[in-house]
């Protein structure tokens, strides 16, 4: 059994492997951090590692995805003897975790001590600690979802569960939440045994995995959700085994408890207006509140907004281009942390597309005037394939909005407000989103961002029995439009591909 050494984050671990194992399988088994947006299916070219020792030669398929340099793709490269794998430090991700104040009675689900609220996003996990007698959290921690090495979106996670059972990913997320809770306790200066109640929210797939429920039925027609949650459970997190865990109601297979919490946190049910709430992340969940009802849907936007599938794309970490401007005939950009550009994240990608349109370097069909456009002095660029990936993602989101409005017989001039939530939605600039058609004309000025509404909604439920009851009523009121069988969505999607 060849010895494989994995070096990352100033650590070194030794793993045993068999000849013929891929580097990715060894890294995953060892629990080392490496994002694989496509789930290791040889499609995204993002699982780059530096490796030395006895390994397989690159295939033609791997070479087609490899950028220039001396790195290899972990999903292709196989162990042929002792070797050392060096993983790049991706840096700290910019995670939206701002608290939003709320109105209502303070009556926690627990009697004394402290409580915790957690949002399990597909890309990130955010947790908050609350005192019994306060609405505002005393500690907040956000980090990457530990399941990222198994795919960037819910479909790749479901496929992995189908092939290997749900148990490995369940163990990953339960271990992460236990550690997250301990980190929160450390930040708050309290002992783990002082936690009396936990509220956990997330999309339906993330919650199925957390509970060890095989998620296969969520991914295939007729997209059956047998377990809607909406109650209190015994999940048994390590160090918190006796702590009850409340999980809000999910709406459908692809509209989860996170949207129930987001609608709750936004307060839109208390406003006599037509309001569109959009979480423009990997799943593209949205809800439209009208006088008559609340309709919702989920679109398969894919992970392009998280930087996956984009040549120079990456997460929102130091060195990622997060804003791009076109002014006085020049394109300029800024990066997270103000350091040298090494990648581009979702908000920068939206800005860049808007700048290319303004500068006539791209037409309304998304055709670039040249094969690729450099955005700065370093070799961070956008090419034609990136634009096509962006068109698919933004087309799915916009088509979902269009379909909801048509379902309610409304036009965009009838919309009073667009509420943007989630990590990506909180950082994008509405003017750029309007320029490329992600949000409709004249709607940028009607848009407001409310941060991680899912986690804030979970916090409200934790701290108010009144809000818990309201969340259950919201879930009962919401009606899902199934876009996969909607002729209107298919037509809207084709139209929404244009910039």
Walkthrough of the structure:
With 499 residues, the protein is α/β, with parallel strands linked by helices. 30% of the residues lie in helices and 23% in strands. It contains 14 helices and 22 strands. The chain has a six-stranded mixed beta sheet, with helices on both faces. A six-stranded mixed beta sheet has the order 21-20-12-13-14-22, sandwiched between helices. Strand 15 and strand 16 form a beta hairpin. Helix 7 (257-266) packs across helix 12, helix 9 crosses helix 14 and helix 12 crosses helix 13 (465-477). The longest helix is centred in the last third of the chain and has 24 residues, at 384-407.
Secondary-structure map:
Blueprint: E1 3-8, E2 11-16, H1 23-30, E3 48-55, H2 60-65, E4 72-73, E5 79-86, E6 114-120, E7 124-131, E8 139-144, H3 154-164, H4 167-188, E9 195-202, H5 204-210, H6 216-219, E10 229-233, E11 245-249, H7 257-266, E12 275-279, E13 285-289, E14 294-298, E15 320-327, E16 330-335, E17 343-344, H8 346-358, E18 372-374, E19 381-383, H9 384-407, E20 417-421, H10 422-427, H11 430-435, E21 447-449, H12 453-463, H13 465-477, E22 478-480, H14 487-496
Parallel strand pairs: 1-5, 6-9, 9-11, 12-20, 14-22, 15-17, 20-21
Antiparallel strand pairs: 1-2, 3-4, 3-5, 6-7, 7-8, 10-11, 12-13, 13-14, 15-16, 18-19
Helix pairs in contact: 7-12, 7-13, 9-14, 12-13
